[in-house]
Predict the structure.
Amino acid sequence: MATKKMMILPLRGVVVFPNMTVNVEAVRKKAVSAVEEAMATDSLVMLVSQKDPNVKDPTGEDIFTVGTIAKIKQMLRLPGEGIRIVAQGITRGRVETFYEDKENFCGEVSEVEEFSEFELIEAEAHIRMVLGELEMFAKNGKKIPVDVINAVRKMRAPGLVADTVAAAVVDDMIKRQELLEALDPIDRLEKLFSFLNNENQILSIEQRVRGRVKTQMDKAQRDYYLHEQIKAIHHELGDTDESLNDELSKRIKASKMPAEVRKKAEKELLRMSKMPPAMPESSILRAYIETLVDLPWKKQSEDNLDLDNAKEILDRDHYGMHKVKERIIEYLAVRALSNSMRGPVICFVGPPGVGKTSIAKSIAEAVNRKFVRMSLGGLRDEAEIRGHRRTYVGAMPGRIISLMKQAGTVNPVFLFDEIDKMASDYKGDPASAMLEVLDPEQNNSFRDNFLEVPYDLSNVMFITTANSLEGIPGPLRDRMEIIELSSYTDVEKLHIAQRHLMLKQLKENGMAKGDVTVSDEAMLYIINNYTREAGVRSLERQIGQLLRKCACKFVKNGRNAISVGLNDLEELIGKPKYHRDDIMLENKVGSATGLAWTSIGGETLEIDVTVYSGGGELLLTGQLGDVMKESARTAFSLIRSRADRWNITPEFFKEKDFHIHIPEGATPKDGPSAGVTLFTSMVSAVTGIAVRGDTAMTGEITLRGRVLAIGGLKEKSLAAYRGGIRRIIIPKDNLRDIEDVPEEVRQNIEYIAVDNVDEVLDNILKKEN
């Protein structure tokens, strides 16, 4: 088909059909230029629709190829540079080439002919079908000009009928373009019939719904009128508080609670409105309804997903804790990529005073959420978690619901402190109740006994703290992501003291930064000689005591700045409480240093063995647990089985008694990891060979002399480092755990990995040359 260069006018949100007269405003410079060029020649212009109305300077890819060739009947200039034209559609056209002209929109355009091969009877049938649907469309309330319907009745050309009806009833631009591109008139009529039939069905359903709603509204108005009469009667009798009921009703509607909860609240409000205020049940219902409306159902804090900002806040408040910080940054990164609001359930396990509770507050600030805390230490009543049923006098919701109400949002950071210290008795098991709270698959419908309706806790970020995993039941532990926090090294304590504890204590004691300074040397001396702990609580108390003494001097000396050095400490906070026991580092016979892990961190254990005449008994003292007693008997049996290696006769064990003692007898001790230390002490006592005092050891032993892996290597290494020990014998299977030890400690300790007790003895016994 022949093409012709023609001005093109891209239309935004408009599709023009042939034989259709339209008013078009042109405000874009190229569009105005195209219209003026067309008026200067044959007044013909190609009207095409843009695919995206927001594109200001369309190219060939931004417009549909099929449009309408129209003749400009009239042009009117508007204030500014725009113009308005009246154009009459003539026929369909196709843009073969779109020129990227800088002056105007133009291109090569060809006329598109409709298909003309169809049966007149089929065409007539389609016209009648469309006309019937069009009349039904008008009856259903759509305003179609009468002259359009009358004109369609007189038309016999199927293409003209389709274009006229489509221009009058189809509003969707994509649907209009589809009809414009349909070159077969019969096909076009079928599509138009389908559209009208679908619209008529929708309109019919709308009318039925409107009728049903109107009936319901009439019933609601009747009920409202009767309720108002009842209220008026109660008001005259003086047995109701109308203003309170109205207020609660408004709060229920404004609370955005789920439909099930709202229905329950309205039902209880209706019950309360029929009761005199003096009735006890009325006050219970009022408390119940107020709890429901005060709870946050939809309100949530918007997470701050700025990873750099979160890292800055966490680093500002806490030194170290890299695993915790990495986990929070990971959570924020996932939140930035996903719309899921489900919060993690994290458990911080570590010794007292390492910052488990305070880091939770910093996490809340970093993610821009509210923070609430619930202490579980000593909790033994399940009702503290789930609440009391309303049948009980003085019933109230559980502390979880109460704290959610206090938070005011559905996604706070919720801290369960000391989760390992819950107990159970005849009132129930709180740990079992916590299973539902901390299970992401269940807590989206948590049911408090007081509320009696489900409450969604899935958006809450739950954080729990514990000193040891042993006190947490297995099913509850399985629902949490465990992050272990270890003891601080001396360098870490120094950073924490100078950066955080000093500033905090200065503020609490009424002084400003710089009024008192403590040298690093003096601070390290306080750490090593005035405290002995995994965390920094005792250190903070010592700093507080130091600053209170300084405050007295500060006031007396006219508020002059004070510098505290190593030589000032005894005057200010007294004599040191702890001294490094250098005797432990000496080479001794029958005495070895072991390492133990407790809930408050790592500890060094000095195990003493003495052999004396007797009847072959093994005496154990020092408040040892059953497992440690079994380790001692295992070590004793292993020595007896290898007695010939040290030229010891069997009669020796019948004529001698072995006494094993672990000092600090008031402290309970247990666990299998002291096996190698017990064995070494016994061998030293039997052979008279001294044990190296600069070496500690840990490991479980078997009757065949193998050394098995132990836990808590990181904490044990920190304890050895604090005690001045620089060599540690460990099981070979624990080599993989060395990378968890802080670098400062790792670089200053020599680790000796062993497989059996023979290797232990080769590295620990100080043989004379």
In short: The radius of gyration is 43 Å. The CA atoms of residues 305 and 332 lie 6 Å apart.
